[in-house]
């Protein structure tokens, strides 16, 4: 049985994650959405071994920062069209209708490309989370292909 990405469910999951988590992560990291457009690639996230509660709080801040860097890198590592759609939606907060007119796409083409962009982001996010030494839940949702039934 083969497993394939459920593009509709994955795109919805990514949208929910970005809508429900991104602002809080940015606030806790002391960052802004504009910081995601050109993350500083250090190659590794901040990793510290600290003991007391103040230091524990700093670890939480570092982890939020690493999550934000991972998100920014995942966006910026996507292909040109996906990157443009994601940056416009997430960083510049343009509506779908604004993007449709800017990109000069039909509604159908734009929503298909947006779904592809969200899925590409989900596919790239786990690598960047690993690279920045943080954990972000896997946003990809898979479905099993139906086995061919004899006719």
Characterization of the model:
This protein is mainly alpha-helical and 151 residues long. It has one domain: Winged helix-like DNA-binding domain superfamily/Winged helix DNA-binding domain (Arc Repressor Mutant, subunit A, Orthogonal Bundle). The chain contains 5 helices and 2 strands, in the order E-H-H-H-H-H-E. It has helices at residues 7-29, 53-76, 80-91, 96-103, 107-131, and strands at residues 3-5, 142-144. Strands 1-2 form a two-stranded antiparallel ribbon. The two termini are 19 Å apart. The mean pLDDT is 88.
Q: Rounded to an integer, what's the Rg over CA atoms?
A: 18 Å
Q: Looking at this structure, what is the CATH superfamily?
A: Winged helix-like DNA-binding domain superfamily/Winged helix DNA-binding domain
Measured distance between first and last alpha carbons? 19 Å
- For the biggest β-sheet, the strand order reads 1-2
Order of helices and strands: EHHHHHE
Main sheet? Answer: 2 strands, antiparallel
User: Which fold name fills CATH's third level, the topology?
Assistant: Arc Repressor Mutant, subunit A
Average of per-residue pLDDT values: 88
Give the amount of beta strand, in percent.
Answer: under 5%
How many helices? The count is 5
CATH class: Mainly Alpha
Gross morphology: globular
Tally of structural domains = 1
So, CATH architecture? Orthogonal Bundle
Query: Would you identify the regions where 5 or more consecutive residues have pLDDT less than 50?
Result: none
Q: Count the strands?
A: 2
Q: Give the helix/strand class.
A: mainly alpha
The percent range for helix content is: 55-70%
